[in-house]
Design a protein that fits this description.
The protein has 476 residues and is mainly α. The protein has three domains: 3-135, Fumarase/aspartase (N-terminal domain) (Fumarase C, Chain B, domain 1), CATH 1.10.275.10; 141-234 and 261-391, Fumarase C, Chain A, domain 2 (Up-down Bundle), CATH 1.20.200; 403-475, Fumarase/aspartase (C-terminal domain) (Ribonucleotide Reductase Protein R1, domain 1), CATH 1.10.40. It is built from 18 helices and eight strands. It has helices spanning 23-31, 41-60, 66-80, 99-116, 129-133, 139-175, 195-220, 240-252, 262-267, 270-296, 326-349, 360-384, 393-402, 411-414, 416-429, 433-439, 445-451, 465-475, and strands at residues 3-8, 11-16, 180-185, 188-194, 222-223, 257-258, 307-308, 390-391. The strands form four sheets. A two-stranded antiparallel ribbon has the order 1-2. Strands 3-4 form a two-stranded antiparallel sheet. Helix 3 (66-80) packs across helix 4 (99-116).
Length: 476
Amino acid sequence: MKMRMEKDSLGQREVPGKAYYGIQTQRALDNYAISGYRAHPQLIRAMGMIKKAAATANRELKLLDARRAGAIVRAADEVIAGKWNDQFVVDVYQAGAGVSFHMNTNEVIANRTIEILGGRRGDYQVCHPNDHVNFGQSTNDVFPTAMRLAAALLFDDVLNALGVLEQSFARKAKAFGHILKSGRTHMMDAVPIRLGQEFGAYATAMRRCAAVLKQAQELLREVGLGGSAVGTGVNTHPKYQRLAVKHLSKISKQALMPTDDLRYAMQSNLAMSVASAALRNLALELIRIANDLRLLSSGPNTGLAEIALPALQPGSSIMPGKINPVIAELTAMVGFQTMGADLATAMAVQAGQLELNVMMPAMAWNVLHAAEILKNTMRVVAAKCVDGITANEERCHYYANATISIAAALNPYIGYAAAAEIAKESVKTGRTVTEIALERKLLDEKTMREILDPMRMTEPAPPIEKARNKTIRTAG
């Protein structure tokens, strides 16, 4: 491989001749062969957007000459488009604060700018990674801005996927709205509920999670670009902060807000903690619902079998015909990974000292990774699981009438103790609550059947006063 020689403050080092990155990136490659994971594409895009906004602002402030600034903007546009993603080679586990990834960005844009201006890669007199691409900037304000912006951008995709899943649950809620079944609390028989009501609650949970994600997104949009090294704005023009953020908002199509306290924005990573927690809470809801789907579809002969999930693949290498709830299982595992990412983020967020938290690369990786896998999982859950769910109406109807807890409907008319006796006899004999209640002739058959109608129990209903008065007098 043809190499080129580059020099930095530590000395000289060979760099692959065709590489757009330079010597500082090469040092990071030599030092941090840790995971093999590379930066999320949204983080690369966000860095490109910041460099474009900074160059535009500095050109307007006449701090960068128009020709060089224009070439930097063009190179940054190519980064935003993903054209040079393969040149962002620094491991996600790297030097604190993200210096290595930041310099990877500066070097790629500088070398591409040099080409645009007619020079050869590595000729930093034409465009220097630090002096030109990074003019008026520091890793300490650029990287936190980039990771917040990347998370805000990715949250748009997460919210879209969440909306798809919510609508999938809502469609099933409507389709299953007429199907009665037994509710279950403590994993034991409870009063009847409609299958559609269960699925409607899943849709509501997704809407609530979306609201929490949107709140986190608002915090992410407050950025500290312009703070420079320690939040004082050293080496920046007085108008740079607001001008750069204004351009970054336009480029990213995010309603970004320049912070009113640059020191806070550099010291604190509250926004990343809140974003991570929002993803964790979404994961908890998805795990819970996935577990419900596994239970409701368990069987087919020895479980609840109230619903059937789509058959996607054979479920056993030894048991013919076995089909497993693979998407629900996948969802739980992704949820567990998200919870682990949240813990790693929390530990990183609390680890800051004084003017900077250097653990930002860990936050960026974990929040973006969690958002990515949740986004992809929700689309798979909607398309390959929920959309294809069918109901076993016969089984649901049987459970709705077999549950002993329908005796609760008798409480206002015969009292809790008398209703409990009927329920106990049902358990002992295997006969239904309705059969036993009718046999005891506490009320006429028509009224008793109205009281014990499982469908009536699935919504608030006014008392049957005539029956209530009669039984109260009889009891007296």
